[in-house]
Design brief:
The protein is mainly beta. It contains two helices and 16 strands.
């Protein structure tokens, strides 16, 4: 009988403990439900839109990445410099550099692309990713985007090329773009840049030693701005300053200015500047057009967008 009483009291204690746990759990769920109902709904972050109108601002990328599902086709064209005057119709009939490119946004904030240029028969693969976006409440004051590419020189190997191995054909470009939409009309961005060439031309000194003309790594910074003069047009300006000092052939800075016209599916820019190449690392390394000597050239960018 005593053993039965012990069993009964043990069962009773378990029953009471179970009841307490069940009541606590029920009370906790009720409190959680009440808390959920009582808690204010969090506000969804609202991001600044249209800091720039397209992917390009003259010779540089903007901070913008199109929406997911956007396919874009681009034409970039650079005529010759104007300093030959009427001999080549101010560069319009001189040798020109052109790039055709296509890009797609498979994921939100990520763009991948492919391009080709007649300059050294270049082929490029590129990637662009929006890291941070400026918010309307100011909690994030700027937008930050990464842009990078890898360019291959696809010319046949001959006496004019410097190729020993296939890696000698490659160059790389990396840029962090930091932008802010200051007002509804005015936007500005600054872009620290790192470029690298695997192989560069050398020269012989008086002793017959072969020395590099340039360093394989180049650092530069780009500053760009846009001011809207109407819903579909804006004034654009861009400045590029190389920072790396080379043994020979330091690149010249670039200053460019123009106008941008935008529709729902097109973006068109026409401008004057000093950069004659269309791949950014080639401009950063090799530009010798000097704006102080009036060595400007006419260029344009055309972009056509589709959404899928």
């Amino acid at each position: 009988m005593e053993q039965r009483h012990n069993y009964s009291s043990t069962i009773a204690r378990f029953a009471r403990v179970f009841l307490v746990i069940a009541l606590c759990a029920s009370f906790g769920n009720l409190m959680a439900q009440d808390t959920t109902k009582a808690a204010p709904t969090g506000k969804k972050k609202s991001y600044v839109k249209n800091t720039f109108d397209g992917n390009y601002i003259i010779d540089n990328q903007t901070v913008m990445v199109p929406i997911k599902g956007t396919f874009e086709f681009d034409i970039q064209h650079r005529f010759g410099t104007v300093n030959n005057g009427s001999a080549d119709l101010f560069g319009l009939f001189a040798g020109a550099n052109m790039r055709l490119a296509a890009s797609y946004v498979p994921l939100k904030d990520l763009q991948v692309g492919l391009g080709g240029s007649n300059e050294y028969m270049q082929v490029d693969l590129n990637l662009k990713y929006a890291i941070l976006k400026e918010t309307k409440d100011g909690s994030m004051p700027v937008s930050i985007t990464y842009y990078g590419n890898i360019v291959g020189d696809t010319r046949k190997k001959d006496a004019t090329t410097l190729f020993v191995t296939n890696s000698d054909r490659l160059s790389y470009f990396n840029q962090i773009i930091i932008a802010r939409k200051v007002t509804d009309k005015f936007s500005v961005q600054v872009s620290p840049t790192y470029s690298h060439f695997n192989n560069l031309e050398g020269y012989q000194d008086a002793a017959g030693n072969v020395l590099p003309k340039m360093k394989n790594d180049n650092f530069s910074v780009a500053l760009a701005g846009r001011y809207k003069i109407s819903d579909g047009a804006a004034l654009i300006v861009n400045y590029d300053q190389p920072l790396t000092q080379n043994p020979l052939d330091n690149p010249r800075p670039n200053i460019s200015f123009g106008i941008e016209m935008k529709t729902s599916g097109h973006d068109f820019e026409i401008f004057f500047g000093n950069y004659g190449s269309v791949e950014p690392q080639y401009n950063n390394f090799f530009n010798q057009n000097d704006y102080k000597k009036g060595q400007f050239l006419l260029g344009f960018n055309i972009s056509r967008l589709w959404n899928f």
